C-alpha cells in the first residue's frame, strides 16, 4: 500500500482514470481478447483457485483458504462502476438468502483510500464484507482490468467460474441461479 501512495504522488492520474485509459487503449488496440485468453490460461475452471485474502473495512482478514467448505464468490467492483451499482444489491440479496447453505461473498473495491466514505456508503446494508483491494493486482487472479468481474470457488477450493471467461460479467438473478445454486446443493 505504501508503494501505491508513492506511485500516486509520481503520477497525477487516479487509479480510476488509469483503468479507464488502459481499457480504452486495450479496446482500441484489439488487445481485449488476447488479455482474456491470457487470463483463461492461468485460471482454469476445475483447478485449484488461487488463494486471496480480503482486509475488510473493519480490519478483519478473511482468506479464501479459511473458507474451504463454503462456496465463495470474489467480486471486484468500484463506486464509479455503473454496472456494479446494479449487480451488487442483487448479489447481496442472493448471498443473504443462501448464507445458511454455505455461500460467502468477499467484495474487493478498486477505489482509492480517499474514496473510503463513498465505499462505506455504497456497501452499507450489504450482506457481505468489503474492503479496498489496495492495487490493481489481485494475486493469482491477475490485474483487475475490467469491472465488474467475479470468480467463484467451490467447496473444495476449486475454481468453479472464471470471470475473465464470462460473456456476462455482472451477476443477474438468472446467472446466480444457473452458476451458484447448483454448487450449493
Automatic annotation (TrEMBL):
The species this protein was found in: Ralstonia pickettii (Burkholderia pickettii)
Cited Gene3D superfamilies: Glutaredoxin
Residue ranges constituting the Thioredoxin domain according to the UniProt record: 43-185
Protein name per the record: Redoxin domain-containing protein
Pfam families xref list: AhpC-TSA
Keyword Lyase part of the UniProt annotation: no
CDD domains linked: TlpA_like_family
InterPro entries: AhpC/TSA, TAT_signal, Thioredoxin-like_sf, Thioredoxin_CS, Thioredoxin_domain, Thioredoxin_ResA/DsbE_sf
Cleaved signal peptide residues: none
GO molecular function: antioxidant activity; disulfide oxidoreductase activity
Keywords noted in UniProt: Redox-active center
Amino acid at each position: 500500500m505504501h508503494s501505491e501512495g508513492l506511485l500516486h504522488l509520481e503520477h497525477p492520474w487516479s487509479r480510476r482514470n488509469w483503468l479507464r485509459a488502459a481499457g480504452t487503449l486495450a479496446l482500441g488496440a484489439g488487445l481485449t481478447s488476447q488479455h482474456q485468453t491470457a487470463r483463461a490460461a492461468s485460471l482454469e475452471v476445475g483447478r485449484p483457485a488461487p488463494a486471496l485474502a480480503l482486509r475488510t473495512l473493519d480490519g478483519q482478514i478473511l482468506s479464501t483458504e479459511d473458507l474451504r467448505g463454503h462456496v465463495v464468490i470474489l467480486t471486484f467492483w468500484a463506486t464509479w462502476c455503473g454496472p456494479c451499482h446494479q449487480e451488487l444489491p442483487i448479489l447481496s440479496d442472493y448471498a443473504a438468502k443462501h448464507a445458511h447453505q454455505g455461500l460467502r461473498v468477499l467484495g474487493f473495491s478498486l477505489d482509492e483510500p480517499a474514496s473510503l466514505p463513498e465505499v462505506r456508503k455504497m456497501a452499507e446494508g450489504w450482506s457481505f464484507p468489503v474492503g479496498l483491494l489496495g492495487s490493481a493486482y489481485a494475486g493469482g487472479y491477475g490485474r483487475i482490468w475490467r469491472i465488474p468481474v467475479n470468480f467463484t470457488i467451490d467447496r473444495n477450493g476449486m475454481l468453479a467460474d472464471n470471470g475473465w471467461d464470462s460473456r456476462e460479467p455482472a451477476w443477474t438473478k438468472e446467472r446466480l441461479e444457473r452458476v451458484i445454486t447448483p454448487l450449493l446443493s
